[in-house]
Write a structure and sequence with these properties.
Layout lengths: L2 H17 L4 H16 L9 H5 L6 H13 L3 H8 L3 H6 L7 H10 L5 H9 L10 H18 L3 E2 H16 L4 E7 H4 L4 E2 L2 E7 L2 H12 L8 E3 L2 E9 L3 H8 L3 H11 L9 H7 L15 H6 L29 H11 L3 E7 L11 H17 L5 E9 L10 H4 L4 E5 L8 H13 L5 E2 L17 H11 L2 E5 L12 H6 L4 E4 L10 H11 L13 H11 L2
Parallel strand pairs: 4-6, 7-8, 8-9, 9-10, 10-11, 11-12
Antiparallel strand pairs: 1-3, 2-4, 5-6
């Protein structure tokens, strides 16, 4: 159990306590504990009661609750509140934008106990009649509910990845299995997954079923089954036809149909997928690109790009340290990068407008620049730390530091963090003004979306990319699995316009650097190459690029 998991449990207790009108001091105590625990770098699970009490910010009562959580994944008071709260009300609490006090009104005054009832009440304009809501809140809740319904049964690729890899590893060990692979959405590395599809090639399907049931201890069928919270499907086929079925079900329907039409035969006994493309007189198309978005024509012309690899990355840019809301110091992050074999680290802590994230005042900017300079002396000739900032794009499109401060940084990531509810016209004027700022080096998470949780503000991607091309601004592909923003579907347009992409982890701790793996996975879907990725270039390239970009 991670510290974040523990923090979520305490947050749930604080919210449910507020919903039921319990002691406000107790609510605050657990809410504060949730916040502090989420920021602790050292894992708490496995520590004794005495060791927990000695952790800064954790008192005896919280330590006792932690011990109960380690033993049972919960604690009695939380279970009591869960039992006292209808499941539908708990689901309503997951809607962004309405806190426990408003949920209490919905539940206790409006007698609504499900998301469906709430949506119906909003459609009838009943919610807006209650004090503290209003039409804007009602409209926002409608959008959130409709988004939740559309996203039901979906999971982030990164969340499902470890379980999927583990299952494939187990299947490959079966005596009956000659070939095994992912298929469907997971094989194509979609950013969100509804089901992990797999294909097994065997010469003895009955033996496979026996092995499966013996290992997993539940009946095997070719229909879907659940493990943990995820849905899996396994297609069993003759081992001789494995490559054919892998191609067929590992590609989007239109992609598979167009390739097979070029072959014009019923042959199924291919050795591998590459043979299928050779039979169609095409270049091999990697699974992640098989979406019928122009890759067919490029494969016929043998003009597919050489896709970027995770190992091509030379360092992480856009990261947060203890100077703002990160968990680790700059030195800790730099030492970690050195051990990983990276050439550089780019720091981009929050700027002064992000007060909620301990954004840097002008005085603290100066302190950080001095520390980075000292660390660069320590790593001289071996590794470099670039001094950057994630500068907030204000509502009028300006960045939140004067030019005299912005010019002190090696580079600037410009991002929107506040007033996310905008019309397309407002979002476009705000972003384009920031892009035209001569100090903007990288446009951070361009739409502000949170996959499966929050739609991004509306923008015209092509016009944003055109503006980046005209102003020499790099586009961020924020690799946080909840963001993956810019959407991969626009990478091809950006590349054709000569706009480089930076796969940025937005890391708030050293473990966050690993998110660049998922950023690379989705970047490959958009056809990104090593040459068009900023942080796949060496330190001298970045040095030169950043200096040329500054006015």
């Amino acid at each position: 159990m991670t510290n974040s998991d523990i923090a979520d449990i305490f947050k749930a207790y604080a919210d449910l306590s507020e919903l039921h009108g319990e002691n406000p001091f107790k609510i605050k105590s657990f809410a504060n504990a949730s916040f502090r625990i989420d920021k602790i770098a050292d894992p708490l699970e496995g520590k004794t009661l005495q060791e927990l009490e000695n952790v800064e910010g954790i008192g005896k009562s919280i330590a006792l609750k932690l011990v109960q959580i380690f033993e049972t994944n919960t604690f009695p008071e939380l279970l009591q509140l869960i039992e006292a709260t209808p499941e539908g009300v708990r689901q309503i609490m997951r809607i962004k934008g309405i806190g426990p006090k408003k949920v209490a009104i919905i539940w206790k005054e409006m007698q609504i106990e499900s998301i469906g009832e709430l949506l119906y009440a909003c459609k009838e304009n009943r919610l807006a009649q209650y004090k503290g809501f209003g039409l804007k809140t009602q409209e926002a809740i409608i959008k959130q509910i409709e988004f939740m319904f559309a996203s039901a049964g979906q999971f982030h690729y990164a969340k499902i990845y470890p379980s999927a890899i583990d299952l494939l590893t187990q299947l490959e060990r079966f005596e009956s299995v000659e070939h095994a692979s992912f298929s469907g959405e997971f094989y194509r590395k979609m950013e969100t997954i509804s089901c992990v599809e797999m294909i097994v090639g065997t010469m003895d399907p009955l033996f496979f079923a026996e092995e499966f049931e013996s290992f997993f201890e539940f009946p095997y069928s070719e229909n879907s089954f659940k493990m943990e919270e995820f849905t899996f499907k396994i297609l069993v086929c003759n081992a001789n036809e494995f490559a054919y079925h892998l191609f067929q079900f590992g590609s989007s329907q239109l992609h598979a149909e167009k390739v097979l039409q070029r072959i014009g035969s019923d042959r199924k006994n291919y050795e591998n997928e590459k043979e299928i493309y050779e039979a169609a007189n095409m270049s091999y198309v990697h699974p992640e690109m098989r979406e019928d978005r122009g890759e067919i024509e490029r494969a016929i012309a043998h003009a597919l790009p050489v896709l970027i690899e995770y190992t091509d990355l030379k360092g992480p840019l856009h990261n947060h340290s203890t100077y703002s809301d990160g968990i680790h110091t700059i030195e800790t992050m730099a030492d970690f990068c050195v051990k990983q074999g990276y050439e550089y680290l780019g720091m981009a802590d929050h700027s002064k407008s992000a007060f909620y994230a301990n954004g840097l005042s002008e005085e603290r900017v100066a302190q950080q620049l001095v520390e980075i300079a000292k660390l660069n002396q320590k790593y001289a000739g071996k590794f470099k730390i670039f001094s950057g900032i994630e500068s907030d794009i204000l509502y009028d499109g300006n960045l939140d530091y004067d030019n005299s401060i912005l010019q002190e940084f090696d580079y600037v990531v410009a991002s929107v963090h506040s007033v996310l509810k905008m019309t397309e016209d407002k979002a476009m004027s705000r972003l384009i003004k920031a892009i035209e700022n001569p100090y903007t080096t990288i446009l951070g998470h361009p739409t502000g979306r949170l996959l499966l949780m929050r739609e991004g503000y509306p923008i015209n991607h092509h016009k944003i990319i055109d503006a980046c091309a005209a102003n020499g601004v790099i586009l961020e592909l924020n690799a946080n699995p909840y963001r993956l923003d810019i959407d991969w579907r626009y990478l091809d347009y950006a590349i054709n316009k000569g706009v480089m992409i930076s796969i940025n982890p937005d890391a708030h701790e050293v473990e966050g650097f690993y998110d660049m793996f998922f950023g690379t996975e989705v970047a490959r879907k958009g056809g990104l190459t090593k040459e068009m990725c900023l942080n796949a270039q060496d330190v001298s390239f970045l040095d030169t690029y950043f200096k040329k970009k500054k006015p």
